Every structure is written in C-alpha cells, then in structure tokens.
Amino acid sequence: MASISNAFVQRKRIAHKPKKGAPSTSGVKEEKVDASVKRDLDILKQFDLTLEYGPCIGISRLDRWERAEKHGLKPLPEVRDLLIRHAADPLYTECLWNDFSTLR
Amino acid sequence: MIYSANPQVNVEQSLSNVSDSAEETPQLNRIKSKVQHKNERFIVKDRSFNRQYAHLYAERLMTMRKRLTEAAIQKWGNVPIKKLHELVGGERCIVIGTLFKHMELRPSILKEVSEEHNLMPQPIKKRYADSTDKLIIEDELQRIFLVGKLETQTSVTGVIVAVIGIEPEDDKGKFYVEDVCYQLLPAQIARPILEQDKFIMFVSGFELGGPEERPFQMQMLADLVCGQLGDVDQQAATAAICHIVVAGNLLSESTQDRDTLTKAKYLSKKTSAGSVEAVKSLDEFLAQLVTSVDVTVVPGEFDPTNFSLPQQPFHQCMLPQSSRYNTLHHQTNPCDVSVEGIRIMGTAGQPVEDIYRYSEMDDRLAMLEDTLVWGHMAPTAPDTLACYPFVKEDPFIISECPHIYFAGCQPEYKCKMYKGESGQEVLLLTVPRFSQSGTAVLVNLKSLEAQPISFHSHFPIVDESVSPEVDK
User: Fold this and answer.
1) B52: distance to nearest CA of chain A, Å?
2) In sequence order, which ranges of chain A are alpha helices (DSSP H)?
3) Is-contact B394 B439, C-beta < 8 A?
4) N or C: lower Cβ tally within 10 Å for chain B?
5) Where are stretches of biased composition, namely Basic residues (chain A) (predicted)?
C-alpha cells in the first residue's frame, strides 16, 4: 500500500561495518593486513584534507585526483595507484565524508 | 533556386518569385556559408544535481589561475605571488582569487525566514547594488576584505582577478589594493578573408504569445530575408544574408503561466498552455526562413527549455515543420558557432541582465565588454544566475577568443569593436528586443561592420475606450 513512509524510503548508511564471521586464519596476519589498510586509508584521508586540490564532496577521489593533475598541482601518484587497485571498494573510491549523506 | 548548406528537403522556391515575368528579373542565388557548431561543452550529458557548486568555483579558479599568473607577471614583473594563507603583514605581493561582493540588499532566503523574528521585510528592488557593498577576495582556503583601487560598483561576484597590494601590520584583515589585473585575452584565430560581402543577421526577443508580439514586422523581416520585398537591388542585397541568429526569448514571458501548478486540476484541465499556440506560430515563422537561409536558434530566459544555464537546444519535436530542414540549427544558450570561419559566441542576455542587477553599471555594452575582459561569459553564475553544477570543467570560461560576441534581448542596439592587446578584434554587439524596437542587426562578415535594420508599420492606433457609436 502506498503511504508516505514507503514513498521516501530511509536507509541508514553505516560506515564500513566490519563483516561478521570473516575468515580469521591467523590473528597475526590479520593484524598485519589491518595495519596496511589503515596506512592506505590514512594516505587517502590526507589527500582528502589537502584543500589545494579543491572540494571533495560529491565527486570520487579519482575524479578529484585527475582534476588536481590536470591543473598541475602534482598529487601523489601513490594515491592514484591505491584508488585503481581498490576500484570496487567505496571505502577507497569515495571521499572521507561520503557516509554523511546530508552533506551532499 | 535557393541554396542552403546541404538541403535535405529540395527547396524549389525562387528568391525573386514576386514578379511573374521571370525573364526580366535576374536569378538571384542565396550566398552559401559553412556552419560549424562548437558548443559541445554546453551540452549537459549527465544531469546530476546532487553536487555542490564549490566544484565549479574550484575549477574556475584553478583554470584561470594560470592565465592570471601570466598576466600579472607581464604587468607587474617580479613581485611574489602569494596564497592568502601565506600573506605576511606589510609585504607587497600579488594575490589571485575569486571576487565576492558582499551585498546587504541581495535577496536572501535566510532573511525571508527571519521575518518570524520581527525583522524588517526585505525591500523589493530591481537592482541590488548599494554604497555599503564590500568586496572580498577568496582562494581555496581563505578570504580577505579588499580596499583601495578596485571599484565595487563595477565589480561582481565570481570574477577571477589578480590584485597587487599590501596587508598592513596595523590594519590586519584588509588588503590594500594598488592595482588590478585581469586575464590575458586568449589568442584569436585570424579572421578568414572573404572575397565578397556576406551578412549575418542577429535578432532577438520576438516574444511570441505576449502582448507585445509584432507579427506584422516579423513577417516583413521574413519576407525581406526571403527576397519577397523590395526591388531587384534590394533583393540582391538580402541574398547576401547567409545566416540568421535568433538570440533568445522567442516566446514571451506571459506564455509561462503557472496556473497549472497552483490551481486545482479540474479547473485547468481544459485550458491549453499559452506556449502551445506561440510555439506553433514560431514554427511557421521559422519554416519560412529555413527554406531560404541558415538559421541558428538560441533559447532564452522565457523559452520552453530548461531554465538554468547552459540552456539546452529546443527539441526538434517542438518545431516539426522547420526542423525538417537542416538549415535550422538548434543551439544552446550560451551559443558558440562558426560561420565561414568567423567564431560567434554569445548568450540570450541573462548574464548581462544579472550583472546589471548586481552592479551599478548602466551601459549594457560595457558589461558585455567586461565579461570578455574577465574571460568568463557568466561570472555571476552560479551565485545569482542559475547554472548547472559542473564538475569537470567550467564551460563559460572564454578559452578561445571569438570574432563576434553578442548578448541578446537587450533594451537597445549598440556595437563596438574591441581591440585586444595582442591584436584580437572582437565585435561586441547588444541585440535589441524585436518586440520593443522592431530592430534586427546586420553584420558584414567581411569587414565586421554592424548596422541596425528596423521594421516599422504605421497603422493608426484605434482607441478602444472611445466608442464610435453616438449616445443612445
């Protein structure tokens, strides 16, 4: 039945919820992976927070990187590599504020 | 036989078919012209409106910064160019950034909301400039007030400028401007040398469907262009018109009735929109012209297309008769077209109108010239002029210098030859509203000289208030 509450479906977005029941073979290895992911995300966060490259909300990180490159601002090539390697993961491709849907 | 570029429909109509004795009148041929559309950048492909305008400003500043750096170095030599966060008090330097004009009278939704707090309601005004306006320059990170030699009255929001000056130690937060510098106008492709005179006609503001439409004068214009008016010499002259640009407001504002939005459906069900009839007569009018000459149609503020710049071309289905001819060129607003290698850019007048509203300038031609000097066709977009939220580029930046730069739907006809520093020659043109003036503009592509051509009809005005009948 049509009503106002199903016309505007509200869905809460949860920022990168860790998957339950993920295979954990060895605790040490997982810690290592986590550390590298954290380092990668830190690099991307720093990229987002570099204001010279322009605003970041609403466009993908890759678009923003390409814009910076186009205008000769020399963004880190490392960032681009990271983004291409994780092209399917919105945690990598979208900017830091992506989960705050009200900002867009 | 009249020539169009590549007629899809075979046009079998003689220019001089007024006279029946064909052997006496010479055969006049329409002068051909090559038309190229250069407006790909104004075609909006993905209509995504969930982005902020910040990207457009960022893109504009980044693109223009290179050009301004060049201009500033050329003008002032070796003075350090600083970002605002690098400013040191008391040091003379150059700052490049976007102008923002702080205006008290500018309509604001927040002020309207604050009515609830018993504040003064906003005055309804036609122009919002005021003596208390302040100029602010901003770059990616910061903003700072500008004082000194930069005229607030003639500046508008959104222009990228380079200013040289000092932020004094004892008056922090203000930048004292010594001098201002705008971009270097991009180089111009040399104008092709034409062997014969070719004319292009600019006309705007037919305002069909409104109280001011002038069907008789429009018919005169169509007849003149198609060679149905005047003697043989006159017809020979009009055969040299190779292109017509119709620059905006083909339909009147009054065709945009909003009754259907506010009224109940059962009340407005049987009324047809005022624009339907107007579009029909527009189609018939254009169909006369396109059988004989290339016509470029640029939509304007009140035309049935999208409202925000860049306005997309008319859909072919709206003009079924005239769209069958490939001599009808649907353009965007702003338009960018090349006729015989002469680059023609312009708008239907909204950017100029908006600058008029938000500055104290009165000369429309000067505003048009300013937009060329600033290197941006619509600097007040997206601030006070509706505009699509572009991300990858700012299409309004003038990156190639036009030969003819026009604004349609203006109160009067004016023209001026603008001469750039590196030899660019641009014909600036304000095209008057046809419904007001009955005037079109002819430009000779060979010499870039412009001349107005007026259509007048003198009918006795019937005063309907006086009844012809005697008292009963």
Assistant:
1) 7
2) 4-7, 27-48, 61-70, 77-85, 90-93
3) no
4) C
5) 10-20
Most B CBs within 10 A among A48, A59, A103, hence the mutation to make, goes to A59
pLDDT tens digits, one per residue of B155-201: 899 999 999 998 888 888 889 998 999 998 888 888 888 888 889 99
pLDDT digits (tens, 9 = 90+) for A53-103: 888 887 888 888 888 888 888 888 888 888 888 888 877 788 777 776 655
ipTM above 0.90, yes or no: no
A–B: how many Cβ contacts below 8 A?
A: 39
Output the six-digit token pair for B431. Answer: 């095209």
Q: Is the dihedral of CA A51, A53, A59, A61 positive or negative?
A: negative
The structure's pTM equals 0.81
Task: Read off the DSSP letter of residue A102.
Answer: G
Tell me the nearest-neighbour CA distance from A38 into chain B, angstroms. 28
Residues in chain A within 8 Å Cβ distance of B141: 51
Under an 8 A CB cutoff, do B62 and A51 touch? Answer: no
